[in-house]
Write a structure and sequence with these properties.
Elements lengths: L2 H19 L10 H15 L3 E6 L11 H5 L5 E6 L2 E7 L8 E4 L2 E2 L20 E9 L12 E6 L9 E12 L7 E11 L5 E19 L5 E2 L7 E2 L2 E25 L2 E24 L3 H4 L4 E3 L5 E4 L14 E26 L2 E25 L4 E4 L6 E4 L9 E26 L8 E23 L16 E2 L2 E6 L2 E5 L2 E2 L1 H11 L6 E2 L1 H7 L5 E18 L2 E22 L7 E25 L2 E12 L3 H4 L3 E7 L5 E8 L7 E15 L2 E13 L2 E13 L2 E13 L2 E14 L10 E15 L5 E2 L7 E11 L2 E10 L2 E4 L8 E3 L2 E11 L4 E8 L6 E5 L2 E10 L3 E9 L1
Parallel strand pairs: 4-7, 33-37
Antiparallel strand pairs: 1-6, 2-3, 4-5, 6-7, 8-9, 8-49, 9-10, 10-13, 10-48, 11-12, 13-14, 14-17, 15-16, 16-19, 17-18, 18-21, 19-20, 21-22, 22-27, 22-28, 23-26, 24-25, 28-29, 29-30, 30-31, 31-34, 32-33, 34-35, 35-38, 36-37, 38-39, 39-40, 39-41, 41-42, 42-45, 43-44, 44-47, 45-46, 46-49, 47-48
């Protein structure tokens, strides 16, 4: 099916929807997407700070499959996708690890072992009342959040209109690339009881299961090469056959007691678990290494678009010459979970109000995986770069009898995070100065204990021909497969490794002569990635909200003291002695005064102007602070050489500190209508980046590395981010007849940033897209509702390299989705959804050259049909 056919089909679907709607009730029923939009607009309108909000509909459902994809539709929000699903969120060009993440105003932490960037695909949006993206913080909010603070607000029984409500949703889908049937479902029960409905209870659960295939191509290490038509070549070509199974389980609960207007007590909790099982066959062909390019074996054809690399194939466990072929098989299980519980409440005593909350959060990650690698020399290779998704292939592919076992690794990573936090606020009513005026003071304490432990045991091949083996010897080869990184252009993956056979063979022969434990590497891997971090934050603040007619002024000051105790591990080898594991301890502390001033001007009931100065911080990632380092390596193509990567932490890193300026203008011109424009600037000190560069022919710890990728986090001097964002939303209820059901939503953001690197170069911030924009056409009239949504996340830096041509980037990501629903009765709605209609891949490239591709990963289209019920 062609793209034009699909788009025409979607357009026809919408026109058919409009015609069907003419047969229904002519009145607009505010439900579904319109209910979401109107709730979100009202919440934005009356907030003190600067925020954008995604709200649930009238049955408590947010529109997308996870929280990252929910907030992607808001202005200034860019999302990084992983395997076709939104995961990390950048706000206003600021990387995701500098956001604040909270649930009901309490820091949620992060199950990922080494970063502060919460993977928002863990959490389903179906059990939340709303998601708030606060872009200009007030002093009663945590100081972490240079881009913004993403606050997840859970449901309570008081969020529903009816005294007792049961809602449920179920759907089943179809996936284009593997014909699998993903399923999703959620349900919630909410009730208020007591003589005055003073008690409320809400329980909800969600489940999704998606098994799917993705195909990708991933060349490595582009660099300038004389005579190449693209100005350079990668060292290799890699392509994969991925099979993934993703499962999410979520639950929320809330018990509320409101004995009167002046008092309330609550107990709330949220649990979410994300599991992923990944099977990956990866084909790799090293055809353009420096050694090959500089040898007589390498030759371009005229024009430099194609060429040939000659070589001799190996036989059995022997060695050949020239290009090298590898086959990897990885089987990985990943489980991440978030569990947060809180007890709190509020009490009012005349003009004084007391708010309090005590919370406990436990996050964890478990990630075991296995990886097997076989290699061969296939002989002569031909390559062709006439297509951006290029090709390189041996004239005669290796047979299973040529594929030599080279390495087996067994990894087991574990991370745990425990957070205790308490918060108390006192608010004094100053309504005598103006309705809504108050003085507020408060304090908070957070204690976080985070530890990460990683093992990665490594076995290599036997020391002689008798103890070495190939895929053919023990029936370890599997059936060939095809990979489609680009539709209609298959890449053959053969021979492959049979998972069941290699697992059984490994279990029967480990340890033994076929698998030789690399003790040094295994000890290195079991030591240098581990760390324990204790982080305590003590905070206090004071703020006022002064309503002076049409002008509201909100000054404030927050103080935070951060104390860190960090333990990493290193390997010490005394002269003539055995290597021992030694802890490496570090302490750090710093103080931050975070002033703010917000001004809200309302010249009329429909217009709001906001001006803000705020200061915020961004703490370093946990792994960046670890005083230890990590070295990973494997045998290189040339005898006696290695290929590897080495990374170091930096316990002396300073936190980011940002002074932020904001100005917005908002016009609420009709019910469900909004036009807003905002400008912002961030002046950031001590930005942290990971310097990555590649060394060749370097010796470390007595080993000679043909290639050694090196990285270390460093503080740069400063960075600046400026931008403008806009949003327009209108429901065309004033139009006659069928047209009155139409509506449109538009968002756009332009961002520019400058990051000064220690080597004197200028760069943008990682994850900062210059352009973000989206458009949605929606329709609701009578029983029928539909929408078509397009969103573009622009190019962004992944990580700076040691030199400009090693910089890595995300390419534009353009998604087109559609959905339609029909209300059958007051209680039942059926619907259909289509995701990624244009079969858009995720793409990455190097050196600002989109033809220096380092990833092109394809997921295909997904379609769902489902039913929602409410009683």
């Amino acid at each position: 099916m062609t793209r034009s056919t699909l788009l025409a089909g979607v357009a026809l679907l919408c026109l058919s929807s409009a015609a069907l709607a003419a047969e229904g009730d002519g009145d607009i029923v505010v439900s579904g997407q319109r209910a979401q939009q109107e709730r979100a607009i009202e919440a934005k309108r009356f907030t003190i700070g600067i925020a954008d909000i995604a709200a649930s509909d009238e049955i408590g459902r947010l529109p997308d499959r996870n929280v990252a994809e929910v907030v992607e539709r808001l202005p200034g929000v860019g999302v990084t996708y992983d395997q076709g699903e939104g995961r990390y969120v950048a706000v206003r060009g600021v990387p995701s690890d500098l956001n604040g993440y909270t649930v009901n105003g309490i820091e949620i932490g992060n199950p990922d072992g080494q970063t502060r960037a919460l993977p928002l695909d863990i959490i389903s949006g179906q059990l939340l009342n709303r998601v708030e993206v606060n872009k200009a913080r007030t002093p009663d909010m945590d100081g972490q959040g240079i881009g913004g603070t993403i606050n997840l607000v859970t449901q309570t029984a008081f969020d529903f209109r009816d005294r007792f409500t049961v809602v449920a949703n179920g759907q089943v889908g179809y996936q284009e690339l593997n014909d699998k049937r993903p399923i999703r479902g959620d349900a919630a029960v909410a009730g208020r009881f007591g003589s005055d409905e003073q008690f409320g209870i809400t329980l909800g659960g969600s489940y999704s299961d998606r098994t799917y295939t993705s195909y990708g191509i991933y060349p490595d290490d582009w660099r300038p090469v004389a005579g190449a038509a693209r100005g350079g070549l990668p060292t290799n070509i890699k392509y994969t056959d991925y099979s993934l199974k993703r499962e999410r389980i979520g639950a929320t609960g809330s018990l509320d007691w409101r004995p009167g207007d002046d008092h309330q007590v609550y107990v709330r909790g949220i649990y979410s678990k994300f599991t992923e099982d990944e099977y990956r066959q990866r084909y790799r062909l090293d055809f353009a290494t420096d050694a090959l390019i500089n040898s007589p074996a390498f030759a371009f054809h005229p024009g430099g678009v194609s060429g040939t690399v000659s070589g001799t194939p190996n036989a059995g466990v022997g060695s050949g010459t020239g290009p090298e072929r590898r086959q990897d098989l990885r089987q990985e299980h990943k489980a991440k979970s978030v569990l947060a519980g809180m007890i709190g409440g509020s009490s009012r005593f005349d003009a004084l109000k007391l708010d309090y909350v005590l919370a406990r959060v436990h996050n964890e990650v478990r990630e075991p995986n296995q990886l097997w690698q076989f290699r061969c020399n296939p002989g002569t290779v031909d390559f062709d770069f006439s297509d951006t998704v290029f090709s390189a292939a041996p004239r005669n592919e290796c047979s299973p009898s040529q594929m030599n076992f080279r390495q087996y690794t067994e990894q087991n990573e574990r991370g745990d995070e425990d957070i205790w936090q308490g918060k108390v606020d006192l608010t004094y009513d100053l309504s005598s100065l103006g309705q809504g005026s108050f003085l507020k003071v408060g304090g908070k304490y957070r204690a976080t204990d985070k530890d990460f432990d990683s093992r990665n045991d490594t076995w290599t091949r036997g020391g002689n021909a008798a103890s070495r083996f190939t895929l053919a010897q023990f029936g370890l080869a599997g059936d060939p497969v095809l990979s489609y990184p680009k539709a209609g252009k298959p890449y053959g993956v053969a021979p492959v490794i049979d998972l069941d056979a290699i697992r059984a063979f490994t279990a029967a022969n480990l340890p033994g002569p076929y698998f030789v434990l690399d003790s040094a590497t295994s000890l290195n891997n079991a030591t240098l990635n581990d760390f324990v971090v204790d982080e305590d934050v003590t905070a206090g603040y004071v703020m006022a909200n002064l309503v002076l007619g049409k002008v509201t002024v909100t000054p404030g000051l927050r103080y935070e003291r951060t104390k860190l105790r960090i333990t990493g591990f290193r390997l010490d080898t005394p002269a003539g002695g055995a290597t021992v594991v030694a802890p490496s301890n570090s302490r750090n502390s710093y103080d931050d005064w975070l002033p703010s001033l917000l001004v809200r001007v309302t010249p009329s009931d429909d217009t709001v102007f906001r001006f803000a100065y705020t200061r915020s911080i961004g703490r370093p990632n946990y792994s960046q602070l670890s005083p230890s380092g990590a070295l990973n390596y494997e045998a290189g193509a040339a005898p006696g050489t290695f290929e590897g990567s080495i990374s170091f932490g930096n316990p002396d890193l300073k936190p980011y500190r940002s002074d932020n300026l904001d100005a917005t203008a908002e016009w609420y011109f009709a019910k469900g209508g909004l036009l807003s424009v905002g400008v912002f600037a961030k002046f950031i000190k001590n930005p942290i980046f990971t310097q990555t560069f590649t060394q060749t022919d370097v010796t470390v710890d007595g080993r000679t590395y043909a290639i050694l990728d090196t990285s270390q986090p460093l503080n740069a001097d400063r960075g600046d981010i400026i931008g403008i964002e806009g949003q327009f939303q209108q429901q065309f209820t004033f139009l006659p007849g069928l047209l009155s059901g139409l509506g449109v939503s538009l968002t756009g953001t332009y961002t520019s940033s400058t990051l000064k690197l220690p080597d004197g170069r200028s760069s943008t911030f990682p994850q900062q897209s210059r352009y973000l924009y989206g458009a949605e056409l929606f329709y609701q009239k009578g029983p029928l509702e539909g929408s078509i949504a397009y969103h573009n996340t622009g190019k962004s830096l992944l990580a700076p390299g040691g030199v400009a041509y090693q910089d890595q980037y995300n390419n534009d990501l353009r998604r087109l989705d559609a959905k339609i629903s029909v209300t059958i009765t007051d209680n039942i709605r059926v619907y259909a959804e289509a995701q990624n209609l244009t079969d858009e891949p995720t793409r990455q490239y190097q050196d600002k050259r989109t033809d220096w591709i380092i990833q092109n990963e394809r997921y295909g289209r997904t379609f769902y049909g489902g039913v929602s019920v409410k009683f």
